[in-house]
From TrEMBL:
The keyword Coiled coil applies. Pfam families: ZapA. Keywords: Cell cycle, Cell division, Coiled coil. InterPro entries: Cell_div_ZapA-like, Cell_div_ZapA-like_sf, Cell_div_ZapA_N. GO terms for biological process: cell division. This is Cell division protein ZapA.
Amino acid sequence: MPELSITIGGRSFPVACQEGEEHFLRSAAAMLDAEAQPLIAQLGRLPEARMLLMAGLMLADKTAAVEDEIRALKARIAELESRPETRVEVPVIPPQVTETLAEIAAQAEALAQRLDDAQSGR
């Protein structure tokens, strides 16, 4: 079982963990240390137990806020998923419009051809 030395609030602590979980332990220690540092900056040196308690409570408060947000987002997702699907109706183009556009295109091509013919001197 690996034993690591982690630092929280400027103090080192030997901690054992399961093989392969060293990264998680270091990550958790870094989170706790991030909460302890502002406490030490504001209050100065604190007894070890008090520093760890306060840092742990601050971290737990942030965790609770994130869990509340996740719960609200999951509820919103469930609400959106329970709505009936919205269908977008695409109007059908009447055949007369298609025929008129084809006639306009044919006339434009004929005009372009006449213009080409006139420019080339035919």
